[in-house]
Amino acid sequence: MRILIADDEKELLELLKLSLEGEWIVDTVSSIDEAKAHLDAYHYQVVLFDRTFSGVDRVRELIRYAKQKNHQQAVLVLSALGSVDEKVQGLEFGADDYLEKPFDLKELRARIIALSRRFSPKIKQFEGIEIDLLHQSIVKDGIVITLSKNEHALLFYLLSRGSVASREEIMDGLYDNPKNVTQNAVDELVARLRKKLHPSLIKTIKTRGYIIES
Q1: Fold of 2-118
Q2: Is the separation of the CB atoms in 49 and 76 below 8 Å?
Q3: Across 114-134, average pLDDT
Q4: In CATH, what number does 123-211 get?
Q5: Per-residue pLDDT for 134 more than 80?
Q6: How many CA atoms lie within 13 A of 6 on its CB side?
Q7: Which residue among 35, 126, 128, 181 is buried most deeply as judged by most CB within 10 Å?
Q8: 44 by DSSP, 3-state: which?
Q9: What is the pLDDT of residue 214?
Q10: What is the pLDDT of residue 160?
């Protein structure tokens, strides 16, 4: 998943990029013009906007531009303007969520994941593969693919997660008794899925785990 963060606090941008880029592709910009240029150039599932740039509230303009480019991308406003009226105003401008500064990085990450799930398409397509997230069915080159119980569980676990999953997290998420499962078993399960579906469907993030990118 690729996300965009627009904020004129450059130190905050550096912190957020450092904190989030291990899980997602993170683009950061510090001006309205840069934000619009990135929205023109890339597809984002979630975008994060500050309200004010150089002391001027520009978020309404930015939200409108983002939604016109892609109405399915989620907008999260990050702002020090945190009164009830200001939050309501931000939502009325078209934001899908609003988080007051200062915020906890764990909460920010959770909100990004929640928004990505909320705005995720129900059908995912990848190199001739069509995955129906609602009915949890897989079709490859027009042929229905049948997976084992654990292969099926891993595929839809990674699709629903939307971020990097460590081997330990996969073991906890898939197995009733994860202590009885080795990390090699997870690697073998990934290898079987890649063979059945596509070698590039599941990406390995070095030292961190696995992800299916949106």
Answers
A1: Rossmann fold (3.40.50)
A2: yes
A3: 84
A4: 1.10.10.10
A5: no
A6: 28
A7: 35
A8: coil
A9: 63
A10: 78
- CA 7, CA 165: separation in Å to the nearest integer? 28
What three-state secondary structure class fits 212?
coil
Q: Map out the domains of the chain as residue ranges.
A: 2-118, 123-211
Encoding tokens for residue 65? 């531009």
CA angle 129, 130, 136 (to 5 degrees): 125
Residue 131 CB neighbours (<10 A): 22
Residues making up the chain, counted from first to last: 214
**pLDDT tens-digit map of 11-62:** 999 999 999 987 888 999 999 999 999 998 888 889 999 999 989 999 999 9
**DSSP codes of every residue in 71-85:** TTSEEEEEES--SHH
Nearest C-alpha neighbor of 176 from the set 194, 155, 153, 206: 153
Which structure tokens are listed for 170? Answer: 């996969």
The model's pTM: 0.64
Residue carrying structure tokens 């460590």: 166
Token pair listed for 178: 């994860």
